[in-house]
Amino acid sequence: MNNIQTMNHAADNIRILAASMVEKAKSGHPGGAMGGADFINVLFSEYLVYDPKNPTWEGRDRFFLDPGHMAPMLYSVLALTGKFTMDELAQLRQWGSPTPGHPEVNVARGIENTSGPLGQGHTFAVGAAIAEKFLAARLGREVMKHTIYAYISDGGVEEEISQGAGRIAGHLGLDNLVMFYDSNDIQLSTACDEVTSEDVAAKYEAWGWHVITINGHDVAQIRAALDEAKATEGKPTLIIGKCIMGKGALKADGSSYERNCATHGAPLGGDAYVNTVRALGGNPENPFVIFDDVKELYARRAAELEKICAARQAEKAAWAAANPDKAVKLAEWFAGKAPAVDWAGIQQKADAATRGASATVLGALAEQVENMICASADLSNSDKTDGFLKKTHAFTRDDFSGAFFQAGVAELTMACCCIGMALHGGVIPACGTFFVFSDYMKPAVRMAALMELPVKFIWTHDAFRVGEDGPTHEPVEQEAQIRLMEKLKNHHGKNSVLVVRPADAEETTVCWRMAMENVDTPTALIFSRQNIEMLPEGNDYSQATKGAYVVAGSDEDYDVILLASGSEVSTLEAGAKLLREDGVKLRVVSVPSEGLFRSQPKEYQQSVLPCGKKKFGLTAGLPVNLEGLVGADGTVWGLESFGFSAPYKVLDEKLGFTGQNVYNQVKKMLKK
Q: Residue ranges per domain, the chain?
């Protein structure tokens, strides 16, 4: 075991690096990073198991940072492990630097998650712990026996999502989850006692966690707590580390700068910085240095890890020899490739609601995709994720052999847990709820897009046709919101989210295929509550993969193009019948994904929606959903207010979503 003097010296080394990174950037958060240095040093130098030569090893322990503003702490300790250079630390928050202001997922560098809004990071850890339990149930403890570590701050505990994460982890008995709570009682602008008086330990104990409270700067207490946590069975562990914000910081006059809100979100500055670095044993003129004894400390750990990993790889090899089928699954699942599915064998019921058609697909996926996890926020019988559930069973604390995650009424928590599953790797997560509740999930969807994670978001009850529930439950602006994200490009130049809204049951199968074959970004699947008539017979549904395609009408000269997504396509076709009887030549276009359509060659886009042709768009959301496709050549009929409480067929009539109104509006447009 390393001596206490060296361990404390290493923690001070982290403090110097963290404070210096922020000082050079003239921006950032030194206080929390300095306060957490002792725990992070003990964890990385003595406990965290990873392979320095193979950072993506599926059997590694994983560390999830919740307070992303404490990035300097993480970058500093990773520099001690050899993942970052001193020059890279000195470029904190600069253009093109690998050390952005908040950590961004980079497993090769030891960063397991992008740290977004407080509360999400530790919830990702809960999802990762679920994934590990799920995989262990299928592959065996020989290859899935790692620990998920999370780091949370006062702000993360206060964020509402922590309630869902704490409840779920305790309920499922995730004893592979260890979370350190940096309890320093100081926030960005206030002391914690100005905003909360809750008993955090009692709260987590009530959820079923094992709770340990320690001095967060005492190496011996940190070690004892980690040992106790790893030995605890049947419960996740919360280690409450009573820490000091800005530990070791001094003011310009040499007095203590600790426990001060000012150190939370600003450089120490001037003489305060100089005094602090000198007191911690560093050189303010050359602060980006790793002390010799600290180099030796982490070199010893690297040698230990080499032996640990060699033993684990030998164990894995013996397991693979005894379980060749499971070894193939392990490799395939962590490769992250699209699974093989018999799409042609999925038989849809005509004129079904697309949520029902989705249930049919999910039933097939439950049987054919062994590493898929489906979740619902207490709506499985309405969002029809029960199509998956009927072919498996839900997780319980003692049984992860099923593949369904009952998240309870917690849409944001559910989404973040699924993101954590995807970050862990080896599983394909999907989660469902009503489309109007996607508002609760938006911050998580954004994080999934930022991290380029292929989570499948299933949203049903897609429009005002929720009916009697009224405007509180009728999505109007939600499609516009998610399609704005569809227009954003990620770092690889792809649409940050694949958004698909199928027009009927058969198109639903194609959209699900697109979702399952999309392994690079999240997918949003938007389904109807009500039954939808099938598109005209003979339609080539395979063309839906291009984002928009002609479903009715010929390429001969025509007067107008009718376009929509989802259930509105069948309404357009009802209007098209009346228009054809009146001698109007037209074509009908289904646009399940504008983002996909925009990525097609310009020639294809022009062949479907040529410039100069009159266009009429129909959307159950805001007109902006289709205005970019209709352009100046026509008009869009949509909603410009929230919905109303009434049977959906009454709403169709009152709001103009009928074949007759399509006829009326198109005739009016053509007369102009």
A: 4-305, 343-526, 543-671
pLDDT for residue 524: 98
38 neighbors 214 (Cβ within 8 angstroms): no
What does the pLDDT read at residue 556?
Answer: 75
CATH H-level superfamily of 4-305: Thiamin diphosphate (ThDP)-binding fold, Pyr/PP domains (3.40.50.970)
Taking alpha carbons only, the member of 394, 501, 504 closest to residue 458 is: 501
pLDDT digits (tens, 9 = 90+) for 215-240: 999 999 999 999 999 999 999 999 99
Fold of 343-526: Rossmann fold (3.40.50)
DSSP state letter for 350: T
In whole angstroms, how far apart are CA 7 and each of 219, 287, 295? 7, 19, 11
63 phi, psi to nearest 5 deg: -115, 120
Scan for tokens 């919740």, then name that residue: 66
| C-beta separation of 415 from 404 below 8 A | no
Instruction: Identify the pLDDT of residue 463.
Output: 95
- The pLDDT score that the predictor gives to residue 265 is 87
Show which residues are catalytic: 411
Residue environment code for 195-226, b if the CB has 16+ CB neighbours within 10 A, otherwise e = eeeeebbebbeebbbbbbbbebbbbebbbebb
Q: Which residues of the chain have pLDDT under 70?
A: none
Q: Which two tokens stand for residue 480?
A: 């516009």
Looking at the structure, give the CATH architecture of the domain made up of residues 543-671.
Answer: 3-Layer(aba) Sandwich (3.40)
- What is d(CA 50, CA 302) in angstroms, rounded to the nearest whole number? 9
The answer, as to whether pTM is greater than 0.85, is: yes
